[in-house]
Amino acid sequence: MNAVRTRGLGKAYRDATAVRGLDLTVPRGTTFGFLGPNGAGKSTTIGMLCTLIRPTAGEASVAGQDINRAPHEVRRRIGLVTQESTVDQDLSAIENLSFHAELYGASRRDARRRAGAVLEIMHLAERGRSPVRTYSGGMRRRLDIARGLMHEPEVLFLDEPTAGLDPHSRANIWTRLHELRQRQGITIFLTTHYLEEAENCGRIAVIDRGSVVAEGSPADLKSTVGDDLVCLRTADDAAAVHAVRTQLGLAAALVNHEVRVRATDGAALIPALIQAVTVPVTSVTVVKPSLDDVFLHHTGRTIGEPVGDPR
Ligand SMILES: Nc1ncnc2c1ncn2[C@@H]1O[C@H](COP(=O)(O)OP(=O)(O)OP(=O)(O)O)[C@@H](O)[C@H]1O
């Protein structure tokens, strides 16, 4: 069963189309990364899947429930962590979480118990009684995620969960997300514009100007854009280039004092390269295509470049 399935999903505003013809399939238990530059349509998509924004085209189901016909059923099965934190700074984490649960009808005892459990999951239990205003940015974000987990959702939506955090806090959040998926089997649907973070996802969809331009595992997407690049530094580059061409029959180029050779599997080529190049080799590096290359390949831009007009 799929956690998320969309067919032709779209959202048009009066003067702009935010999302067009979106066909997505997210199997249960996947960490799915929705990757795209600012303004690509990521938040609008999350808003539609979480039943906060009404689509103007197509259909979608989340946790097996139709977003248009059964929005309340969808809401019961999902957690949403938006870009803006919604916790009260003057309350402790436990108070924030249990008040929230009580508001939704849980008994005080159950609310406290569940708050304790989700704080454990997000590694905040030790500071659970401190006021949130004493937390670091990373701890606050983990508390936001803990809140999204309170009613044991099947699918957790996270809009830019690591934006603005330092690398250590980002890594910590990723460790928690991996644990969540592995131990609790939760499907995680997140947006990000950090390409390196998308590597943590089992599957990604690249969205640009409201449409998906590529979808697959990070490894699959990278393998479709090109080969590895093997770079050699040698004592005699001209001789090395000649040897690679004549001995191995491969195209080799001299760029920036490096001998560069393209190969499907760069690492596997290294022994043959070293043997063919009889001159001393001082370094060998294998550069794999990155998600940057994937984005560039499909959109003709790097992810940081402005998106332009979505109309
Ligand atoms: N309520 C609205 N009315 C008109 N246009 C909108 C509205 N909401 C979003 N848009 C437009 O739709 C496009 C997609 O916006 P969206 O917020 O979904 O992008 P995003 O990928 O989430 O970007 P960001 O990372 O900046 O949030 C943008 O061009 C935006 O200006």
Order of helical and strand elements: EEEHEEHEHHHEHEHEEHEHEEHEH
Q: Helix amount, in percent?
A: 25-40%
Number of strands: 14
- Indicate the multimeric state: single chain
Strand percentage, roughly? 25-35%
Termini separation:
35 Å
CATH architecture group name of the largest domain: 3-Layer(aba) Sandwich
The CATH homology group name of the largest domain: P-loop containing nucleotide triphosphate hydrolases
Number of domains: 2
| Radius of gyration using CA atoms only | 24 Å
Individual helix count: 11
Largest beta sheet: strand ordering: 6-7-8-3-9-10
Poorly predicted runs of 5 or more residues: none
Query: What is the overall pLDDT average?
Result: 90
CATH C-level name of the largest domain: Alpha Beta
Biggest sheet, open or closed, and with what strands and sense?
A: 6 strands, mixed
Q: Describe it for me?
A:
By secondary structure, this protein is of the alpha/beta class. It has helices at 42-49, 71-77, 93-103, 108-121, 137-148, 167-184, 195-198, 218-225, 237-248, 266-276, 291-299; strands at residues 2-12, 17-27, 31-35, 57-62, 65-66, 78-81, 155-159, 187-192, 203-208, 211-216, 228-234, 252-255, 258-263, 281-287. It has two domains: 2-222, 3-Layer(aba) Sandwich (Rossmann fold), CATH 3.40.50.300; 227-288, Alpha-Beta Plaits (2-Layer Sandwich), CATH 3.30.70. Strands 6-7-8-3-9-10 form a six-stranded mixed beta sheet, sandwiched between helices. The protein is elongated. Adenosine-5'-triphosphate binds next to α1.
